[in-house]
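Hello again,

I reread your note about wanting to compare the complex against the isolated chains. To keep things tidy I'm splitting this into two emails, and this first one only covers the full assembly. Below are the input lines as submitted, including protein chains and any nucleic acid or small-molecule components. They are followed by the predicted structure of everything together. The single-chain runs will come separately.
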Amino acid sequence: MRSHILGRIALDQERLAQDLAHLAAVPTVEEEYDEFSNGFWKNIPLYNASGASDDRLYRDLHGAPAQPTGHVEHVPYLNEIITTVFDVERLQMARTRNLKNAVVIPHRDFVELDRGLDQYFRTHVMLEDSPLAFHSDDDTVIHMRAGEIWYLDAAAVHSAVNFGEFSRQSLCVDLAFDGAFDEKEAFADASVYTSDVSPAIHERKPFTKEREAGILALSGVIGRENFRDILFLLSKVHYTYDVHPSETYEWLVAVSKEAGDDKMVEKAERIRDFAIGARAFGERFSLTTW
Amino acid sequence: MRSHILGRIALDQERLAQDLAHLAAVPTVEEEYDEFSNGFWKNIPLYNASGASDDRLYRDLHGAPAQPTGHVEHVPYLNEIITTVFDVERLQMARTRNLKNAVVIPHRDFVELDRGLDQYFRTHVMLEDSPLAFHSDDDTVIHMRAGEIWYLDAAAVHSAVNFGEFSRQSLCVDLAFDGAFDEKEAFADASVYTSDVSPAIHERKPFTKEREAGILALSGVIGRENFRDILFLLSKVHYTYDVHPSETYEWLVAVSKEAGDDKMVEKAERIRDFAIGARAFGERFSLTTW
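Full-complex prediction:
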């Protein structure tokens, strides 16, 4: 795991509550990356490329930093965090992200963009501590605690989940650099930066042959009508068992093959390549059209 | 199947499109019956017990018909359908319902209410023809076509699904009677009533021993972390295979038993009793708290 804690801030619960109330009142819409998730996933852009309040697409910015959207004036506390903690000159996008009863399938980000992958610097400031919410990064599953600022290695195979119905609001601040950089440069306030906070690593059960056999037996159930459901089911396995998130797609391919449906095999391989391989900018994928 | 077509109306697509645009712009919120569904499920009350625009709870009305909500003035065409087609003196609730990429688990309605089950008269006016959307009623799966007015036997074990991402907007009009009635009495305009429209019955595959074995093999995959997902997966089986929707719960119980987790067995039995047995008014159920 390359993801790690960058620092910790004390959250003003009273001011935070007011901002969270605004976020809750913003209508839920279809998301830009809806093919990656199921359940409740709500992203609200605070800073983005265009300044438009409904522009949820991450894209490269060159020359100019991100623009504030109309939501910013309603979340003064979050805006204060963004502008006083981070170096806004490097800001690419800032958005709140909430997951409930939902999983985001294992994927890699930034692969469709122009910069070298190491130039993208994604951070998460966890605003609420939802005990059943986790992130994964390659071989590790972490639980982000409220107030922690994380560097999330979004160029690696990663995923997010909330097994519960509790709100798990996070402030996701994307920065980008040109050339070599020290991660301290992400911050306007260098005193926030610290390397001495131990992460809450989520303990997982061993991934046994028996468990693998159980997963492969999904060939007796999978069909085009539940292909999408099976993908989301498989996407959660690595949160409970110690196995790499990319195995999600190997299982999906294997189960589709065993079920003997070439169209499912083809879709399984395409979604694998789309999510963790190299997709083109703006490429979209349907899990339910055959 | 006791559900059947009551009539058919010609939809004015231009006026309908304006109303649907309003419905699409209404914020999506947490639903009153969210434990019954996953995916996108959006219900907007047009007439209800209180007249409040956010009151989504069905309850018995005695003496007074349902009240219009603030949404009604924005959907003049749907209001015209409600008030000219149906006998509004018997109106209990009218709401639009949309499902996308979603399933509502098999359940029985009205069991927590006061009247005899045969006194409740639920109708659906299908507004859009989404080819992958179906309803089930006991032993039958139907596809409601746009313009059809259906009596849906909601006191029987029934379910709804949309396997696709196409909008499937329906106008659900609930009436109630006291004592014996002729179903023609549901209508203000008796000329709408007809019994000569053949329903589009959805052909299903035979439910084989092999398929049953595949389902029972889910014992190798089920866990508390995916119990909810497995329930929704099982809820879809009867749309593809010719088997009763209530089997959903028998499989869930059996798979939980085979997995050897008493808490899962207990929750499976409770959700079965809650959904298709006798629940108390206002009773709620969590699929993710253990």
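For quick reference: The longest helix of chain A spans residues 262-276.

B.
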